[in-house]
Structures are given as structure tokens and as C-alpha cells.
Amino acid sequence: MKKAASIFWVSLGLLLLLFTAACGPEENFSGDSPDPSYTGDPLFQSYYDSLGGQQTLGTFISDVIQKDGLDCQYTENALLCHDPQKRSDRGFSLYPLGRELQIADLQDGQRKPGDGAQTNNGFWVFSPFVEPAQKFGAGQPLSRYRHDYENQQTQQWFETVGFYTRFDDPTQQVYLLPYGRMACKAECGPGTIVPDLAIPQQRSSNPILEQTDRLQDARVLGRQLTDMYQAPDGYQQVVFENAVVYLEPTNNQIALRPLSQLLNLYSDLPGPQKHNRKDGMVFYPLSNGKGFHVPVDFDNFLNQTISGQDLAGNPISGVYTVSDTIARQNFENVAVEYHRDSPAEYRVRLAPIGRQYLEKFGQPAAPSQPPAPQPEAEPPAEPELEPQPAEPPQEIPQAPVPQEPEFAEPSEGGASGQLGFVYRSADEIQEGADFKVYLLVFDNMNLRPAKGVRARIELNVLGKTSTYEYKFQATNSYGWAAVVVPPLPDAADSNVVNYKICVEAPAGGTICKEDSFLVWNPR
User: Are the beta carbons of 127 and 116 closer than 8 angstroms?
Assistant: First the structure.
């Protein structure tokens, strides 16, 4: 029987769809409406319509003008021209505004993920832009395709038009950049709004962005929150929404700041391997045969976007819940989240800990070194519980899920009812101390917490005949329950206590898991 981990982690398989039709409706970069006083000249109407009309080229923003011996008229996204020496149904073209905008860029050194075709001037064309570039007669590319984090777009600038796709659109619908509004000057009047777009220039190259653009999918870093600046340790860095990227001076390569340490994110102790890919988990070994289990979808996501462990670093925790619908796992440099209620393409994503870094430290006051690692750090403090309270506590939402959930098989008593559970307890306790167990019960199929579920714990001191049974509180709305076992009368120093936790499934039967702890006396 497959473990529950393989049931509730939904495979994503992020599919990149190639552009197969005309460009989508144009977007307004500035948020302002264009001047409605201009209309298209009848000369250009058929040509304008053949290229997609207002939805693609935007509205007309000038009268007919003369340019290089051609009759031309500006739209928001292009300059339509006609050679008067040719018949009225021929001689149409788009003017090379890209040259006029003085677009220039460094050529690609090598092929990158997403490259579709290489032109004879050395630039690779982004795959979704190949077909529309042919349709519009875009000419030669004047830049590499690059990620504009401020506008959340992937852009590439050509001679006659420029293209972009939006980060949040998995279909990669292609739109036109507003060349017309950027290039039109006196012909369009003082009311024309020029969009705030960074035109690629060789002189303004950013070595960090040059390298992030070469990642498989740098869009997952989120919005760029700062320009490149020098941190107190002398390193150049850029803060993104989900990570902080700096330039390693020894090899001039990018790396990510250890935000888990800098922000003191939750960490856990590594444990032995208990699951594999058949269970929906990948084991990341750290040392001495111990490590962390990472859901397959998290592992695939990191490998398909930011080169996996090379940039993400090692996991420092297992998967734990941060809300009813969000699960998270912390790595040294990033945190990966699963959002159950999001569209399939965006269920797995990076958590916005780069923004958290900026809010905590600010741009000029970023710490020069991370705090010393705390491998033995205790997890967040749990609430103090009295033995067998009459009513369950109102909330125990912040108690972390153990780093490697063990989903027990149903016992012979009956079916599991599709429930799973994880628990957290000590491996050893001091003689005379209470033994506390924290329990999380959930629905295997959808990760929802299971409320109102009953459970019990049975204990037996190894070599003794007495058995003790205690009942957990019914699980609360977060799926949590707890029990405090008082000192067992026949448990003394160096005794091993075996125990079994059993959850009663609503459909009948029980799910049980056995474990043990050591009683010791420090004297």
C-alpha cells in the first residue's frame, strides 16, 4: 500500500505551451487611456486589421506623418508605414522603431533554457516569440530575452516590435511592448504617456541579473525589490521577493543568502531515511545517514527552476503546516510552499522570505554575516498542558509537524477511513517527568485537518506486565490534539517504555503506530 505522502502531493508537471495564435489583447502599461482624438487613416485600416487591430497594436496615437519618404501613423505599439511609390494595397511595413530607440544588448554566450531559435546576429529568440516574430516581420532581435521583475514580464526587443509574456500566465500569451508610445514625440502631442520600461543597453548591464536570466525559470524569484547594491560585507546583491541573490567575488558567480539563518526560520533535526520516491518523497542525506524527506513535487520544482540544491541549499526542516491550506519546507536559502487551493500551476512556489529580509534589515543595514548556526536548536515552544483537561485547548496551530511524517498502515481492526497522522514526542524523559505527545490528524486525500477525531495511547514498561491507557483530547479545528501522561509508577531510571498511539477512523477501524522512549535519572 502506498504511503499517504504519495496521495496528497499533487504532481504539477509545469507545461510550457508554445504560442500558436495571434498576440493577445494589448495591456496599458501606464494605466492611462490614450488620446481618443486620433483615428486610423483609411489607408492603413486593412493593414491594421490584418495584424490584429486595436487588440494587438493598440489605438492610433498620431495623425499620418512623413518619415523617411514613407506615409506613417503611430499606434501605441508600432509605427505603421506605407511606401507611396507602390499601390495602395501593397508597400506596407512596420517601421524599425527598435533601432530608433537605440536598443543594444550583449549577445548570448550560450544557449539557455527557453531558447527557441538563434538568429544570424547571435541572439537566441525566446520560444514563444518565434512564431509572432515571423508573423509581424519583427526583423532581427536587438536584445536577449530577459526577465523584467518590476513589471513581472519576460521581454525581448526586435527591430519593428517588441514582445513580452507575463510571469503569472502559464499559457505564455504573447503581447506587444508599447514601442509607439515610447518612440512617438512631437507627432503625438504632450498628452502621450511614456511607459516606464527599462530599454536594454550594454552600458547598464547588471552582472547579477545577467546570471539570473540564465536560470531555468528565474521568474520564481518573484519581483525585484532593489537594484544591485553593495551589502555591508562588500558583496553586490539584489533583493527579490523570494530570495536574496549576491555575487560571489571569488568566482563571479551568483549565490543565495542563507535566509533561513538570517530570519531564524523554523528548523528541525535530521533523521534516518524511511521513505522513497514510491512514497512521493526524495531523501536528502546530510550526515551520518540522516537527512530530510522532501516531497517529489518540491524536488522537481527546485530542479526545474533554480538548479535545485546548488542554489536552494540543504533542507533544514521537514514539511510542516503554516495554515489550513499551506504547507512549507525550509531550505538554507529559500522556503518552498504548497498552496492547496491555488491553481495547479502555482500550488508549489517559493515563500516571500526575500521581502521579509528587506522588511527586517532594510537595504543599507543588511547584516554582514549570518548568525551562528544552531544545529541543536529546539523547535518553537509548545503550550503547557495540564493532564487530561476537560476541554481541548482553543488553538495549538503553531506546533510544528515532525520533519519526517510516518504514515502508519491501518491495523487489522479495520479500514483507515483515509486518515493519516503524525505525532511529536520526546525520545527520552527524566525520571518523574510527564510524557507529552502532540498529534496531528488529517485527511490523506486533501491535506485538510481532521476535526473531532479521537485517539488513545497505550504504554507498557519493558519487562513489566502493567499496561496504561490514556485518551487524547478530540482533535481541534486545526487537527491537533495532545495528551500528558503522568509518571508511570513502575518506570524507573534506564527503563524503556513502549507505547502505541491509535487513531479511531470515522469509517471504522484504527490507525496505530508504535514507538518507545527512555526514562533516565541525571543524578
Answer: yes
Q: Where are the alpha helices (DSSP H) in 201-293?
A: 207-212, 259-262
SS3 488: coil
Please report, for residues 261, 265, 334, 360, the alpha-carbon distance to residue 377 in angstroms, rounded to integers and kept in the order given: 12, 11, 19, 22
Q: Can you read off the three cell numbers belonging to residue 16?
A: 510550457
CB 204: neighbour CB atoms within 10 A?
Answer: 10
CB neighbourhood size of 498 (10 A): 14
Q: Read off the pTM.
A: 0.46
CA distance 130 to 3: 44
Considering just the CA atoms, what is the radius of gyration of the chain in Å? 30
Contact (Cβ atoms closer than 8 angstroms) between residue 303 and residue 15: no
> Quick check: helix, strand or coil at residue 356?
helix
- Residue where the block lists cell 524511511: 274
Going by C-alpha positions, the residue among 138, 161, 135 that lies closest to residue 21 is 135
Cα-Cα-Cα-Cα torsion 210, 216, 221, 226, nearest 10 degrees, comes to 0
Q: How far apart are CA 343 and CA 10, in angstroms?
A: 11
Could you tell me the strand order of the sheet in which 290-295 lies?
A: 271-272, 290-295, 281-287
Domain locations in the chain as residue ranges: 42-195, 204-369, 419-520
**Strand pairing partners for 330?**
335
- What's the pLDDT score for residue 455? 93
CA–CA separation, 484 and 304 (whole Å): 45
Cell 509508577 appears where? 489
The CATH number for 419-520, chosen from 3.90.226.10, 1.10.3720.10, 1.20.1090.10, 2.60.40.1940, is 2.60.40.1940
Reduce the secondary structure of 366-422 to three states and give it as a string: CCCCCCCCCCCCCCCCCCCCCCCCCCCCCCCCCCCCCCCCCCCCECCCCCCCCEEEE
Three-state DSSP at 157 gives strand
Q: How far apart are CA 123 and CA 505, in angstroms?
A: 61
Q: Grid cell 515563500 — which residue?
A: 351
For residue 87, the one-letter residue type is R
pLDDT at 90: 82
Residue type, 376: E
Residue 24 has a CB neighbour count (10 Å cut-off) of: 18
> What does the DSSP 8-state code read for residue 145?
-
pLDDT means per 10 residues in the chain (523 residues)? 34 27 51 65 93 93 92 95 84 92 70 61 85 91 79 88 88 92 79 63 65 74 86 89 90 90 89 87 90 92 84 91 87 93 82 93 57 37 35 32 35 49 84 88 80 92 88 86 89 87 84 86 64
What is the DSSP secondary-structure string of 269-331? Answer: --EE----GGGTEEEEEEETTEEEEEEHHHHHHHHHHS-THHHH--B-S--EESSSSEEEEEB
Please report where in the chains the cell 522532501 appears, as a residue: 294
For the chain, the distance separating the N- and C-terminal CA atoms, rounded to the nearest angstrom, is 47
Are the beta carbons of 95 and 70 closer than 8 angstroms? yes
